[in-house]
Inverse folding.
């Protein structure tokens, strides 16, 4: 990396490399080491240093010690404005670029006050632009502190969904990043995590443990692999060099929700520790298949600890520890009132790391990690209380490995060379049995209505009874139909997934031009074996006169299959499990995918008021991934499609603080076209498309606007959020016949009507000739349904949230009292995320809910 320089004015300012005690930051964070001198070169103690980004709200302050030194650790990669003030000296201001983990050394030489005018480099709009070739969003603690909580125990997912353009909200904390389903890699302090972090699979790191995040949505650098539609590079909070600080907060809200959150950080010059402990209980833990929750109590608890130790000026040791647990009931529908299925997830993570600096421009980082997820899914005590199937599952996922890289920053180059080696151990045990004789009906009547006939197991018996064989009958399922004398299906297997990668990435700065060439090589050895060679290149150019950054990039990526239930899902196709009992098409285990992605965009500043970031992306993937859901349960199975073509536009508008107001708006438009056939998964008697279709990641428009007003700076605040979704694809109801075939509960869920008659639980609509529709689902006009150009969609929805609070209720010094009150879905709109989706099931958006939080902080 080349440091930003300004002309050398005698007696005023000098920025240069010096030898001061370095320290290192983890992940996508940098370190600034500095010293402040007077005109003679003597140290200036007690000088006040402020580092600030007016867009993200990130602000840090420091005071020089007796030797004039100061230090900022864990500084997120971004542009900053640094100011230095000291009694008797002229003020100093400078824009600072942080885009490397290599410590940046600075010397600031002040001039005497009144001797001559101070040299000031103001934080202009162009000075806050990031001259990088990839689209991204930077988040600081202050960015998400006022955002509403949309789903319990999913604070990290909520912050990502509401902050990053092109990321579409789905149920239960899931999200679709730029047309893909949860195709996300998390890098937490340098630890790569590409397995699912939703509460259905694992337990997320608590949001109050994260200091900052960079959300990368295009042209990922070569250091990132596995799943790259979205890369979340997160830096956790640290106590190194900090005075004691902490907080405790408790909250109560709708659905009997009760929460407690606590943090504590402290440290010295050589050590530091930060701990965050959170717990939550809610009567609406998951998004439910009914507007009002049925059987949906859940709780979660997490504890995160980060320890830092710096024994000398060149070596630093870090240790991250996470232990978490969540437990929840699986929500019921009115068709499943007696069902009592439950799930427990337990997670632990251990991540020691080491860093060593070589002189002033090189840094070696070694991250080791061990992560373990254990999922237990329990059926009802009486299997026949479950409907339409009873299921149980025990599975574990253990991921361990090492990542090491060498970073070198000198003149025009910011180079990183590294390797990553890891193994994922899978242990899967699954059982299920059919409990509803209509689920795999053998016979139908002349009108096509399924007949229960629990004693009938062979379609040849239908004629003698005056019926005809059902066209959707799956003969392989008869052996597991408990209503027809069958016994539960049982599966148990283990497998190891070995992965090796090497990569090299450079960022070359040539004046206002930035070039980012990179190359990554991945070797995948699991149920299948493959190698991926991945060239990547990006370029950006800064037009200072107009405050514009133009950028473009290309990335060849090697997308790896989801690991959750991968073994069983890869064994279910034709020729698998002996009889192809579940109806999947292909016979091969799920293989890695290969993608070519392109993007072009710009970042534009408008003075010091606001910035716009816009990006156009298009992605072509051979072997594209998704999940198949087991009915409305949280049990999912990875599947792949022959190919996908995804393109779209993302946009983000961000303002600085304008007289107490600060706002940001994110928008996205995505076309997600997938091509069959599929491979893997549990399909049962609902065959998936074999041609081109719009998958449920496709949405014409999503936008989130978040506005905060706070005045004075540390006074009370109020925030307003407007969320709009034009509606995801929902392919289950393509015409009137499909709507009439739904149960009364399902018709009521979509708001089905015929003329003036509206379906209810006690009054289903069984016949209709015209003037029909649904209030929460867009059914194509008769004869116009098309899987590619006019699929059924969830109806558009506008959701409004409001919150207000204060960080110092009684205006005290030291210990402060905090207060926050929030209302989610203020107008109590009844809306769906999805409906009878093969990939997601049915889930309602949360009804209007309230929460009050009170706490103390110091």
């Amino acid at each position: 990396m080349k440091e930003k320089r300004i002309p050398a004015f005698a007696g005023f300012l000098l920025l240069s490399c010096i030898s001061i005690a370095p320290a290192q930051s983890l992940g996508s964070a940098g370190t600034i080491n500095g010293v402040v001198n007077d005109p003679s070169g003597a140290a200036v103690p007690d000088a006040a240093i402020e580092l600030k980004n007016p867009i993200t709200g990130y602000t840090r302050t420091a005071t020089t010690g007796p030797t004039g030194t100061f230090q900022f650790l864990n500084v997120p990669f971004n542009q900053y404005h640094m100011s230095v003030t000291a009694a008797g000296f002229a003020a100093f201001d400078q824009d600072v670029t942080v885009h490397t983990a290599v410590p940046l050394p600075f010397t600031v030489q002040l001039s005497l006050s009144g001797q001559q005018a101070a040299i000031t480099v103001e934080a202009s709009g162009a000075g806050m632009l990031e001259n990088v070739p990839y689209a991204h969003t930077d988040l600081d603690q202050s960015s998400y502190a006022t955002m509403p909580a949309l789903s319990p125990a999913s604070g990290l997912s909520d912050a990502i969904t509401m902050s990053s353009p092109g990321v579409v909200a789905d149920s239960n904390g899931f999200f679709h990043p730029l047309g893909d389903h949860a195709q996300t890699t998390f890098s937490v302090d340098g630890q790569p995590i590409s397995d699912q972090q939703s509460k259905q699979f694992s337990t997320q790191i608590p949001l109050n443990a994260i200091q900052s995040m960079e959300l990368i949505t295009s042209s990922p650098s070569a250091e990132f692999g596995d799943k790259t539609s979205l890369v979340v590079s997160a830096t956790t909070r640290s106590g190194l060099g900090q005075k004691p600080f902490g907080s405790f907060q408790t909250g109560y809200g709708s659905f009997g929700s009760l929460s407690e959150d606590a943090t504590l950080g402290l440290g010295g010059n050589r050590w530091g520790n930060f701990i965050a402990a959170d717990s939550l209980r809610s009567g609406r833990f998951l998004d439910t298949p009914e507007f009002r929750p049925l059987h949906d109590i859940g709780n979660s608890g997490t504890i995160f600890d980060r320890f830092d130790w710096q024994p000398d000026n060149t070596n630093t040791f870090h240790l991250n520890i996470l232990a978490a647990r969540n437990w929840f009931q699986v929500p019921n529908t009115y068709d499943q009132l007696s069902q009592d299925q439950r799930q427990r997830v337990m997670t632990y993570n251990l991540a020691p790391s080491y860093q060593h600096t070589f002189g002033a421009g090189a840094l070696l980082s070694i991250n080791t990690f061990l992560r373990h997820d254990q999922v237990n899914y329990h059926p009802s005590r009486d299997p026949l209380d479950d409907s339409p199937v009873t299921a149980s599952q025990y599975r574990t996922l253990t991921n361990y490995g090492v990542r090491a890289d060498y970073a070198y920053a000198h003149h025009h180059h910011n180079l990183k060379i590294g390797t990553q080696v890891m193994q994922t151990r899978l242990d899967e045990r699954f059982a299920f049995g059919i409990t509803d004789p209509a689920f795999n009906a053998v016979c139908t009547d002349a009108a096509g209505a399924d007949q229960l006939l629990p004693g009938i197991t062979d379609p040849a018996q239908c004629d003698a009874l005056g019926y005809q064989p059902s066209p959707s009958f799956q003969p392989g399922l008869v052996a597991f139909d408990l209503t027809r004398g069958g016994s539960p299906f049982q599966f148990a297997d283990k497998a190891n997934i070995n992965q090796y990668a090497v990569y090299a990435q450079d960022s070359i700065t040539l004046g206002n031009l930035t070039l980012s060439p990179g190359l990554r090589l991945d070797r995948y050895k699991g149920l299948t074996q493959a190698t991926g060679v991945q060239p990547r290149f990006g370029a950006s150019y800064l037009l200072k006169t107009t405050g514009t950054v133009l950028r473009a990039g290309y990335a060849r990526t090697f997308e790896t299959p989801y690991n959750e239930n991968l073994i069983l899902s890869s064994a279910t196709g034709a020729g698998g499990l002996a009889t192809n009992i579940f109806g999947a098409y292909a016979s091969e285990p799920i293989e890695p995918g290969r993608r070519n992605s392109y993007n072009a965009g710009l970042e534009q500043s408008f003075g010091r008021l606001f910035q716009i970031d816009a990006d156009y992306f298009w992605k072509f993937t051979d072997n594209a991934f998704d999940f198949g859901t087991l009915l409305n349960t949280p049990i999912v199975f990875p599947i792949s499609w022959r190919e996908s073509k995804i393109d779209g536009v993302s946009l983000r508008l961000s303002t600085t603080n304008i007289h107490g107001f600060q706002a940001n708006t994110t928008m996205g438009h995505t076309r997600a076209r997938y091509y069959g056939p599929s491979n893997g998964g549990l399909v049962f008697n609902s065959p998936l498309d074999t041609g081109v279709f719009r998958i449920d990641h496709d949405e014409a428009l999503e936008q989130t606007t978040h506005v905060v007003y706070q005045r004075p700076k540390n006074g009370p605040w109020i925030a307003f959020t407007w969320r709009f979704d034009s509606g995801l694809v929902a392919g289950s109801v393509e015409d009137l016949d499909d709507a009439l075939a739904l149960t009364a509960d399902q018709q009521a869920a979509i708001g089905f009507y015929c003329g003036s008659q509206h379906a209810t639980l006690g009054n289903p609509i069984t016949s209709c000739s015209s003037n029909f529709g649904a209030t929460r689902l867009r059914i194509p006009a008769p004869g116009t349904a098309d899987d590619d150009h006019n699929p059924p969609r969830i109806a558009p929805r506008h959701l409004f949230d409001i919150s207000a609070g204060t960080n110092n209720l009684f205006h005290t010094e030291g210990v402060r009292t905090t207060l926050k009150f929030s209302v989610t879905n203020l107008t109590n709109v009844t809306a769906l995320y999805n409906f009878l989706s093969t990939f997601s099931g049915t889930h309602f958006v949360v009804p209007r809910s309230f929460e009050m939080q009170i706490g103390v902080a110091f």
In short: The first strand starts at residue 29 and ends at 37. The two ends are 37 Å apart (CA to CA).
